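Usage

Read records sequentially. Each one opens with the input sequence:
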Amino acid sequence: MSAATLERVPMFSSMGIRNYRLFWTGGFVSNIGTWMARVAQDWLVLTVLTNNSAVALGIVTGLQFLPTALLAPWAGSMADRFPKRKVLIATQAGLAVTGAVLAVLVLGGWVTLWQVYLLATLQGIAAAFDGPARQAFAPEMVPQHLIANSVGLNTTSFHTARLIGPAVAGLTIAWWGVGPALMLNALSFLAVLVALALMDSSQLTPAPVSAKRGSIREGIRYVRNRPDILIVMFLVFMLGTFGLNFQLTNSLMATAVFKVGPEQFGLMGSILAIGSLSAGLLAARRTQIRLRLILAALAGFALCMALLTIAGNYYVYVLILLPTGLFALTVMTAANTSVQMAVDPAMRGRVMALYMAIFLGGTPIGAPVIGWIGDAWGPRWTIAMGAVACGLAVLGAALYVLRDNGWDWPWHRSADPNGVLEVPDEAR
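and closes with the structure output:
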């Protein structure tokens, strides 16, 4: 793949822009709460509502991501047709309400498994519309040459929170219980709402609004004619569906294999996030995005997953999580940046919605299947499946690209019936 060359910039350049600084800070607080809620919800399902049922946890995880797959075309169209800041205010408020309801049910002692299923679905619906708007909103806050930097810093925010959130959740659950951890998550969404309210709209550069009918079909047709985007989507689909199930796999390994408490379970997520944070910081300074980077990082991730499968004790497992997080996040950041930089700004909301549907939408398929494998064959097989799937994805994509045009495979195949390959201006 031809390189998308980016100007080298200082690591925290986007922080000099007030709107982005507000957005990053609010998102950071909210992300801490989100990671706390994930740990607390998993602990609730596994230890309070069921007897370590991998199937129940897989269903909850699947329900959270199913709306992303089903609603992606409409979510992307909304992100391109309405002001993204207003869309985000509505979705963040919805996430806050559903989070608060779950916390109240737990604190009151009324929670049941079907209620968790329902609220997971409602949260998934809000998140399905939130994701494309949030992804497409970041480039409206920064100039073109800082888009890659803002993506890297957003990733750093998410995974710094991933470092802090599980550890705080583990301590909160151990000291006060699951309910307070869930309530802190609900309150954390207020930080995003305040940040959005304080922004200076005159400093934003909104993308052109698509108001015509057929915009959903237009977005699908646009992606279908971009093999560079399609191959990236294939790789992130395999990673998201079969590899990034640590919410499930770590829960099973902690409770059923290593038999540790909530503090050690929370530490698993924090260690994984240390590697992810390192990758996010590196991404903020990266000057080129190449397909070979994505493939190499996914191959490294598959190898780490294989090592996790055979890890003999808790401490070895936790140590291997460090490079696992680094490789996984490198794939995600490089893939996200390559798509953001290659797409037409007027199509960004719809393309990023499809990207997220591919990336997260496989989870409703993968999570219940992996949960069933965990119950039938044991927790270690849930990790082995991810190692095999991601390894085969790397092999298949590499063979396809080498057969097609070698490593100089360009960003875009033109619609020319003769198959002439060309690189669009934005990727030169």
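Summary fields computed downstream for this record:
- The chain has a mean pLDDT of 81.
- The longest strand covers residues 4-5.
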